[in-house]
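re: ur question from earlier - yeah i can do the single chain one, its not a big deal. heres the input i used so u can compare w yours
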Amino acid sequence: MSDYVTYLIYVFLGINVTFNLLGSFSLHRFPDVYTRLHGATKCTTFGTIFAVLAVVTHALNQLHLTGDPKYLQMALHSLVALVALLLTNPVGAHAIAKAAHLSGYKPARAVIDAYERKLKARGEGR
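and the output i got, formated as C-alpha cells:
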C-alpha cells in the first residue's frame, strides 16, 4: 500500500476516534437526556462516516493492487452499513427523546417547550 493512502486511512481513523471520544464525553458531561442524545448521536454518526471512509479507501486500494473482487464487496457492504446507520441513528434518537418527554423528563434549561405546547393543544398534555 502506498504511503499517502496509508496516511489518509490514518487521518480518517483519527477523525473517527476523536469524534467517538467526544460523543462519549457528551454522555458524561451534558445535563439531560436530550443534550446527551444530541451530542452522542451527532458525534458517533460523524465519526462512523470516517471509519467507513477508511474501510472503503483501504478496500478500493487493495482492489486496485490485487484485482480481487472481495475488496469491492467489502467496500459496498461498508457503504450499505453506513446508509443503514445514517437512517437509523436519527430515528432512534428521536424515538428515545420523544419517549423521555412523554415520560415526564423535561429539558434542563429549555426556555420554550414547543412539543409540550403541541400536546396541550391536542389535549394530550399532562
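The longest helix spans residues 33-66. not sure if urs matches, ping me
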